[in-house]
Amino acid sequence: MTRDRSRARSAGRQRDGAAVAAPSRARPRASRRVERWRAQAAAWGFILPVVAYLVAFYAYPLYRNIDLSIRTYTVASFVSGDAPYSGFANYSHILRNPTFSPALVNTAVFTLVSIAFQFAIGLALAVFFYRRFRLSGLLRALFLIPWLLPLLVSASTWSWMLNSDSGIVNSFLQAIGVGPIDWLTSPHWSLVAVLIANIWIGIPFNLVIMYSGLQSLSTDVFEAAAIDGANGWQRFWRITFPLLRPVSAITLLLGLIYTLKVFDIIWIMTRGGPATSSTTLAIWSYQLGFGSLLPDFSSASAVGNVLIIIAVVFALIYIRARPRLEAL
Amino acid sequence: MKRRSWWLTALGVLFTAAMLFPVYWMINVSLTRTSDMRKSPPNLFPVHGTLQGYSVVLHQQLPYLGTSLLVALGTVVVTLALSAPAGYSLAKLRPKGGGVLSLALLIAQMIPAIVMAMGFYTVYIKLGILNSVWGLILADSTIAVPFGVLIFTAFMSRIPNELVQAARIDGAGAMRTFLSVIMPVSRNAVVTVSLFAFLWAWSDFLFANTLDSGGGLQPITLGIYAYIGNNNQEWNAIMATAVVASVPAAVLLVLAQRYVAAGVTTGAVKD
How far does B198 lie from chain A, in Å, by closest CA? Predict the structure, then answer.
């Protein structure tokens, strides 16, 4: 799709395009070919650092990760350098592990519930802030704070707020007559607790994108609908929401991809526990690789690769959807 | 009309207050005396305010803050040095294979950090740069470089071609054009990319914890993490550290709010 875009960009320079399409015509003008070759060399000179960087810091670690997952690695393997090849044994091992299905279910629930609430609240706030009022710009800026704070800061703040005995949330609940909830230490509530924190963190991102989506809509339709007597509710569901569908789709897909890999918040608040009640695939992978004194890097990277496969599926949907949505 | 606008403002203030309550609570707890920490119900305002927590930060956390600053600035430099030239090339020089590169960068952004951390760990242990600030800077830059290229490409595509052509007619080569024509007009993109690279590196916990947990120089996120693990009675000190660790975010928001919003939307929607 990016190639389409660059082709569109170069359409303005028809002479170049024609020369590429018909190289025989360009042959006599050898100097031009040299010039073009030099231009390509310069173009590549500027992207070469990033290409080398991607190979060294993305492709190679990923290759190492796959290599880890099809061998039996221990800490000793790093020193001795030999790790026996084990094929897909690590994968079948993690699939049969009793942690696998709770981790998969928790990942799905955590991701879907997070993005559903983040999106709904973010959109509602975007519509609210779209009706400009005094201080609306300032308040909208303040809304960004939760998203800019280090995740570790937000997670530890929420940990203390949700503390069973001394947390403000429980003392508020008790004031309105609801019994104290063991947010972080009860297996029924731990996933809810990390969800609340994660939704809070994700609202600003959704608000900003949906707000800019609203701004890009033409105001004529709204005026026409208002003249036709549509009320606010009808205008939102019949006009605004359908028009926002492309932006919504991108926001939701990005939210999905980002939420799949959430680690910090869950690790700080519950470490995936109690037991496996808030363990997601990212947490499980970390537990296997770094969470114990006896690291199992092979299983950890196998879990990590399962997570990559899920993320890449959605990434491909995103990449395919993007140009089509941009055209709308 | 005016009265209705007041009503909306009141509602907006209410929403914002609810949203920012955890931030307020962090500050409130950071000022609470240790003896009041387990009080039920907790004090809603720091009535017996104390700076005890902050004095602990001053005595114990300054080296961590210094390391974070170093790592974040290093990440900004690495990110700018790699992504600005690439953005220029993709936007103006039309390299063959540029489309594939853009696609690779897009996918790179979606790889879970935990997987990257594992890969880095095995590579770093071999190279012997585990627990080094350099290793951490390189790892942190992977969060920001793909985003940086995206922002620079989007921004530089909007620079008029006439400007580039004029420079070429004046005899400037690609490098000269980049340094003296493109970069000076790309200030906004530089600010946006630096801002996010700084914030992400400053906030990073996963890479720090996996690649630098035994290092002599550790960032502030590990400082807080060690607090939570060791003395979970001293919540005023933990929250005071959290407040101090949030200062860069607050400063950047005040100084560069429009860049933040621009960065979010360019990264996600526009191209």
Answer: 11
